[in-house]
Design goal:
Length: 842
């Protein structure tokens, strides 16, 4: 019976629907009655139920199909269940499913209804709200309009009153009309205005809603809306940008192109500073260029220029700092110029008599005329010719002084006297001197010296000079030549007259009435007098009390001493004087300038000192990585001979250093650890000991403590008075560092005819010496088809049964190699000897 109930409930649900599978169900009427009533009562909306079931005919069909199938196919049916039972079960299942679907549909429908209701209510509320707003706004507009009207009316009334008071009666109409018109116009405008205002209000509403969907700056910053969180860094950047903008700082995009002043050298950080770029960026781009420098290092102007260009700025090269500008660079007026004596340098090969000639001239012209004949060596002296001309001779013979002066920009020499010994003719240094003079554009006069010697051959000198494009007058050229003898004094006057003549041709002039400018010829630290410099005045007149700057030093002229050792109060153009009152020792070739104040002098000197320091640093530091590596590699392969040089004057010291630099080759070089002017001291000895260097003293001696110290420490001190001796000695020492060259001599060849095996010896070659000799002690190579297949020594060399030392060409012999056995008939034995050859630096 329960099954029957189920069936009925199914039927009742489908009341009146008459679906296919259900309608045909048995006993439906019965069950229906008993149950359907209560059931149908529960259903809220009949139509809904229909809607759900109808669109799902598949479910019913399937159900029916299934039922049918189950019924029609008893095999698939669980055992012991009758057809009726089966059908009943299926129906119950279907009913449950239908119920489920129905409920879901019901829920959906309810939801929809509620949603509709909500919508409707909202619309109502919105409409109401809108109405309210509109009404409000209309009211407000009206109130405003009224207020305006009132104001206008008042103003009009005021104007009318004023006009009435001021104007005649007839004009009263105007204001009255306008007063009338105003409200009329206002009335007409009011509705339009209201519309506009409403529009605006609506628009505002729209704006608001639109804006609410947008991200405001505030929202973004607080991260409130849209969840878009900005990073701290981004915020900071933003703030920084805002701050920079506020401060008027340049924004990155608008790059400012600067004019960057770059002196000869500049510290990296300073360069960055001048470009207003970050130091790190500058260092980075230097590194990209292969320059490994830090921000505190100095780079040269050329490198700086590349950097400045890379950063898009303009470079302005400044050769000297502004401080130098106080030095007067004015060109003298032609009218102010007065004749001045020529300055002469004597050059020539060693031992051709330069010193002798200088002495002879001085003695002949100075000593004779001076009481006591005391002459003082100050590096230059003046003589008067018989014809009354004054000549200034630089008393520092040799090319080094001349070139080192010239390299410092101090061109002091007007005329070169080329000394050539008549018995020796043109020598290497003669040619060098010719080249120097030519390079400097200085005219020459040839002094053919030692004419007193029997071997003198002045014509040979003239002829040889011709080969070097020095065409003397005797060879119908323009170069004056004079035959002289420094020993006998022959031709000296002629030589001086020739110089005077040459000077006349040159028309040498200078303005004596201006701030003095001169060149340092020699400088030294005098124990009693402090730093002393011999200055050759070139322009103006140097006076006692003048404030000057000279190279990196400065001072005030305390005293002037001339070449005769006498105090003078002033020195004009071409006059050499010793200057006292320096604050330090300048260098030969330094230029002296008189300035106005001590402050200026000090400032310039300090600037030059720091510039020089920077330049030295730049030269050392600003090497590219490649250069550094190459240098390191070179250094590994080069042997160095360290030396210390102490000399009497700066000029000699520099000349020696320059000569030292020239000694050596790619294997050996001389390194001057230190050089200076003055006696050899204990400090020098200490330095020499530390580096295992000898000390070369040129016209100076070691003081007592230095001598003792050198003895104790085994430091070698050598004294010289001729630069060339010093150079030769150093050369010899450097040559000692050259590894001996090994030379090979081929002394013979032998051909292997037969190969024997000898017990206890191994293979022995029966040979014929075809060339030279075979020597037991010599080295041998085994050649097969002209290819070296072994190199070694002989174990045995036999002639018949006897061991011999040598076998001559054409003889037969037996040979066996030390530790080598692979020998064949037809092989050739090459016999050679090695020799170690000591090499010399040239
Ligand atoms: P320097 O190296 O060129 O300075 O030559 P020196 O002046 O030292 O002279 C070298 C050598 O030549 C010395 O021994 C001089 O005495 C000698 N000497 C220089 N001039 C003459 C000369 O005119 N006649 C002769 N006979 N010897 C001279």
């Amino acid at each position: 019976m329960t099954a029957g109930k189920d069936e009925e409930s199914q039927m009742s649900d489908n009341d009146g629907k008459k679906t296919l599978g259900v309608r045909g169900g048995p006993r439906s009427g019965n069950v229906k009655q008993s149950f359907s009533h209560g059931r149908t009562k529960n259903v809220v909306v009949e139509t809904k139920r229909k809607r759900v079931v109808v669109p799902k005919p598949g479910a019913a069909k399937t159900g029916a199909g299934k039922g049918g199938q189950a019924i029609g196919d008893p095999s698939k049916r669980p055992a012991g269940i009758s057809d009726a039972e089966m059908e009943r079960r299926m129906k119950a299942l279907q009913a449950a499913k239908a119920r489920e679907a129905e409920e879901a549909a019901q829920r959906e429908a309810d939801e929809k209804a509620r949603e509709e209701e909500r919508m409707r209510r909202r619309e109502e509320a919105e409409a109401k709200e809108r109405e309210e707003r509109e009404r409000e706004e209309a009211l407000k507009a009206k109130a405003e309009e009224e207020a305006r009207k009132k104001k206008e009316a008042e103003e009009a009334a005021k104007r009318a009153a004023a006009a009435a008071a001021a104007a005649p009666q007839g004009e009263e109409k105007g204001p009255a009309r306008s007063q009338k018109a105003a409200p009329a116009g206002g009335a007409a405008a009011a509705p339009r205005k209201k519309e506009r205002e409403e529009d605006r209000a609506r628009g505002k509403g729209r704006d608001d809603s639109r804006r609410s969907g947008k991200l405001t700056v505030n929202q973004a910053l607080t991260g409130g809306e849209g969840g878009r969180q900005k990073s701290m860094a981004a915020m900071k950047r933003k703030q920084e940008r805002a701050r920079q903008k506020a401060m008027g700082a340049p924004v990155e995009r608008e790059k400012v192109v600067r004019d960057v002043q770059v002196p000869e050298t500049i510290v990296v950080s300073e360069l960055a500073n001048r470009m207003a770029e970050r130091v790190a960026d500058v260092v980075k781009s230097l590194m990209k260029m292969g320059m490994m420098v830090t921000q505190n290092q100095t780079i040269d102007a050329d490198t700086a220029e590349l950097i400045v260009e890379e950063f898009g700025h303009r470079i302005q090269r400044v050769s000297d700092a502004d401080v130098e500008d106080v030095i007067q660079q004015i060109e003298d007026d032609e009218a102010d110029l007065q004749p001045r004596p020529p300055v002469i340098t004597i050059m020539g090969h060693v031992d051709h008599g330069k010193t002798s000639l200088l002495d002879a001239i001085r003695n002949a012209k100075v000593v004779a005329g001076e009481a006591g004949g005391i002459t003082q060596h100050i590096g230059a002296y003046q003589v008067k010719t018989d014809s009354g001309s004054t000549l200034t001779f630089l008393d520092t013979p040799g090319h080094a002084a001349f070139t080192s002066m010239r390299s410092r920009g101090a061109q002091v020499t007007d005329i070169v006297v080329l000394v050539v010994a008549a018995d020796d003719s043109v020598m290497p240094q003669t040619i060098e001197a010719i080249n120097h003079a030519k390079a400097a554009g200085v005219p020459m006069i040839v002094a053919i010296n030692k004419i007193d010697k029997p071997a003198a051959d002045p014509n040979k000198v003239r002829a040889e000079l011709l080969q070097h494009e020095v065409i003397v007058e005797a060879m119908s050229g323009e170069v004056q030549d004079v035959e002289v003898s420094a020993v006998t004094g022959q031709g000296l006057d002629e030589l001086l007259e020739a110089i005077a003549l040459q000077a006349e041709i040159l028309e040498l002039k200078a303005n004596p009435d201006r701030a003095a400018e001169g060149a340092v010829i020699e400088a030294q630290l005098d124990v009693g007098r402090g730093p002393v410099a011999t200055v050759l005045v070139q322009k103006g007149t140097l006076k006692q009390g003048d404030i000057f700057v000279v190279g990196e030093q400065w001072g005030r002229v305390r005293a002037l001493v001339d070449d005769k050792g006498e105090r003078v109060s002033e020195a004009g153009p071409s006059v050499p004087v010793e200057v006292l009152g320096l604050n330090g020792t300048p260098e030969a070739g330094d230029v002296l300038n008189v300035v106005d104040t001590e402050a200026q002098a000090r400032e310039i000197a300090e600037y030059r000192e720091s510039a020089a320091k920077e330049k030295r640093a730049a030269a050392g530091a600003a090497a590219t990585l490649e250069q550094l590596m190459q240098k390191a590699k070179d250094d590994e392969n080069v042997k160095e001979l360290p030396i210390l040089v102490k000399a009497d004057v700066q000029g000699s010291a520099e000349a020696i250093v320059q000569a030292m630099e020239k000694i050596g080759n790619e294997e050996v070089r001389v390194r001057v650890l230190h050089y200076g002017v003055g006696a050899i001291t204990e400090t020098d000895v200490g330095l020499a000991e530390a580096s295992g260097a000898p000390i070369m003293g040129f016209n100076v001696r070691a003081n007592a403590s230095a001598r003792n110290s050198a003895n104790q420490k085994g430091v070698e001190i050598r004294y010289y008075s001729v630069i060339y001796d010093l150079v030769d000695d150093v050369k010899a020492a450097a040559s000692g560092l050259l590894s001996a060259e090994i030379r090979e001599h081929f002394i013979g060849y032998a051909e292997i005819r037969e190969v024997f095996k000898v017990t206890g010896v191994g293979k022995v070659a029966g040979c014929l010496v075809t060339e030279g000799v075979a020597r037991r002690s010599a080295g041998v190579r085994l050649l097969r088809d002209d290819v070296v297949i072994h190199e070694g020594t002989l174990k045995t060399l036999k002639r018949f049964k006897d061991e011999v030392k040598e076998v001559q060409s054409g003889q037969e012999c037996g040979m066996a190699f030390e530790n080598y056995d692979d020998i064949r008939p037809g092989d050739v034995i090459e016999i050679f000897e090695r020799e170690e050859v000591e090499r010399q630096l040239d």
